[in-house]
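Recall that a protein's primary structure is simply its ordered list of amino acids. Everything else, from secondary elements to tertiary packing, is in principle encoded there. The following example makes that idea concrete.
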Amino acid sequence: MSQDWYTLDELSRQLGRDRREIEKLVHRGRIPGRKISGDWQFHPAEITHWLEQEMREYTDRELALVEQTHRSGEVNDASPVASLLTLETTQVPLNARTKRSVLETLVEVAGRTWQIWQPAAILAALQEREAVLSTAFDNGVSIPHPRNPLPDAVGQSVIAFGKTSSGIAFGAPNRGLTDMFFLILCRDSRTHLQVLARLGRLMQTPGFLDKLRATEDSVTAYETIVEADQHLLV
């Protein structure tokens, strides 16, 4: 099989789920795939996009499984978010009042690492992703990211966090306002999904978002995120 496609068995291992369960979901049209020469095959990018949407409804246990099956050599498995977030890529308050200015400012914050090689390309990719479907959640958090990895635009994977002083319209499903933003810029899909799953688990941690929302400066926000990430068991 071409390295650009997963077989049914490879997808089962990739997702950490029983092959028969995956096959049923494929036949029901729940997982994007196609038959080539009589065999089911799956494009990695399509699976990543599908999994991103599925993860929005996952439990902590399901998200932990995604973490385990998408471990990346670029992060510390015990604290993947803290591996890519630094104090210099944490900005509280984030001075932005519109969706576009949030994205522009987050790219600037991430650029403090000197790992952002093509900021204009990254900004365009972020806007394109938001145009397809907003990355905002109902809890006032958004996780902006490109639809596909941009290895030529990023030297090393990086996370930037910002919290605006007041909420803005960012496209949340409940039309609520968003005030906390985690920008994810990863060089590959495996790292991206591991980090995305971890952030999903952090958002489900009791009290975490309230504590983070109450922070008033970058240092306190950074320490709050790192502490929660390091104490979350896989």
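The beta strands are 6-7, 34-36, 39-42, 85-91, 141-142, 158-169, 177-185. The chain has a mean pLDDT of 93.
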